Amino acid sequence: MKYPRLRDLEAPARRRLPPFVFAYLDSGTGHDVVRAANRAYYDGMTLTPRFLRGRIDADLSASILGQTYDAPFGVAPIGLSSMIWPGAETILAAAASRNGFPYTLSTVAGDSIENVAAAGGAHTWFQLYATKDKDITFDLLRRARDCGVETLIVTADVPAPSRRERMRIAGAPLGSRGNSSFSPRVIWQSALHPGWALRMAAMGGPKFRNMAPYADRHGNLPITSFIGQQLNGTLDWDYLQDIRAAWPGKMMLKGILDGQDAVRAVGMGVDGLVLSNHGGRQLDAAPHPLERLPAVRAAVGDNVPLVVDSGIQSGLDIVKALVCGADFVLLGRAFMYAVAALGRDGGNHAAAVLLEEVRDVMAQLGVSTIAGLRDVEINRHG
């Protein structure tokens, strides 16, 4: 295995991608304080192993929202992942299905829910950004339901666009504020990375296939301007109640970090919560999800599934999150580094590394089941 650690894939991904695309994948917001703190939080934990337990054959299976998966983790939603690597959505959906864990398609991904659900099957989840035009939201829910999607993740933590300075510096033309002009600098960067550029050209350029069918109803706006007009700050509690009433399957709310918000969401019928600081891409002073997990757990009790993302890059990180009390884990950038570096092989490679690492860490700790990780002693430093 040439790249046995997913962190080692950042360098080859950087080489294969134009700088403005790598910045889109890698950057946080502001001064990247939270982006760095997410990583430091995991690096500052140690786990105390227990020995003399014989041979450990770890069972990685985990259940959430009535479904059992072969691993305690899944792929987090990533907007416009086909720009990071053309075809990334179907690559990752197929890898998730093959390896028995969920893949979450973003509303603003490059490919459509129809195409991705065909690749991911029953392992496909859908992430919803509530749109200003509610008819669009409800039609997205209809399409997901018609494709057999059973789990919906509604994102709450994007009340406004964020300033992602590294993207600006790199000249990213598809930033969070709807700037879609391709400057000579971006064209030059693309020409210097022909592998990415040729694949992107073959795909017809960056697309938003979930949102594209609705753009014509709202004049002749460029698709990025249309999406910027429809998203950010549209979700409130009344709208969430409407979504809950319209969605017949399981529903999680993503981005919750406050106990009172958690209680209110659960009271409205939300089935689970994703504790997240959006990978450090929204508020550069947000707390780490694991810092907030005890308070949220105390507020909602033990029967509400709590999922964690942000900063997770390895099987060891996954185990640490589970030891801290998370019921399930989502990873975003780690999978995208793998696809950017390795193309079509990236999804399966990332899955193989993570599954092997989780299994190995559990054996080193002397734990044979995911539930048993709750008994591991964890220490925090720094």
Write the CATH fold name.
TIM Barrel
Radius of gyration: 20 Å
Total number of helical segments?
Answer: 18
Q: Name the CATH superfamily assignment.
A: Aldolase class I
Strands, count: 12
The overall number of domains is 1
**Ends apart, CA distance between termini:** 33 Å
Order of SSEs: HHHEEEEHHEHEHEHHHHHHEHEHEHEHHE
Based on CA inertia axes, which overall geometry fits?
globular
Question: If classified by CATH, what would the architecture be?
Answer: Alpha-Beta Barrel
Topology:
Blueprint: H1 10-16, H2 19-26, H3 33-43, E1 45-48, E2 62-64, E3 67-69, E4 73-75, H4 81-84, H5 88-99, E5 103-106, H6 113-120, E6 124-128, H7 134-146, E7 151-155, H8 165-170, H9 184-191, H10 194-202, H11 212-215, H12 223-230, H13 237-246, E8 250-254, H14 259-267, E9 272-275, H15 289-300, E10 306-308, H16 315-323, E11 328-331, H17 333-342, H18 346-365, E12 377-380
Parallel strand pairs: 4-11, 5-6, 6-7, 7-8, 8-9, 9-10, 10-11
Antiparallel strand pairs: 1-12, 2-3
Helix pairs in contact: 1-17, 5-6, 5-18, 14-15, 16-18, 17-18
